[in-house]
Amino acid sequence: MKATVTVMLKQGVLDPQGEAVKSALGSLGFQGVAGVRQGKVIELDLAPGTTEAEVTAMCEKLLANTVIESYRVEMGA
To answer: How many domains in the chain?
Structure first.
């Protein structure tokens, strides 16, 4: 079983990497980008029987800094 965890900075938290990407895109001629938020994707290969609640606990304890980041868990086959 696999799980995909997407971690992003919460709205209102400064995203310097996103701003750098936006600036770079503008200097490359891509003017249609109004904003960029950069995050991370974590793919987990799980043992059979691992629950979404366990993956959520992993996020709360290690994978995301819940003070400034939000996360989304997607469980797959």
So the answer is: 1
CB distance 54 to 72 below 8 Å? no
φ, ψ (nearest 5 deg) of residue 17: -65, -40
Give the Cα separation of 63 and 71 in Å (integer): 9
The helix (run of H) or strand (run of E) holding residue 6 is: strand 2-9
Which DSSP category does 28 fall into? T
Residues in the chain: 77
User: At 54, which CATH number?
Assistant: 3.30.1280.10
Domain extent, residue 66, equals 2-76
pTM for this entry: 0.88
Cβ(55)–Cβ(5) below 8 Å: yes
Res. 3 pLDDT band, cuts 50 70 90 = very high
Residue 66 has what pLDDT?
97
The separation between the first and the last C-alpha atoms of the chain, rounded to the nearest angstrom, is 5
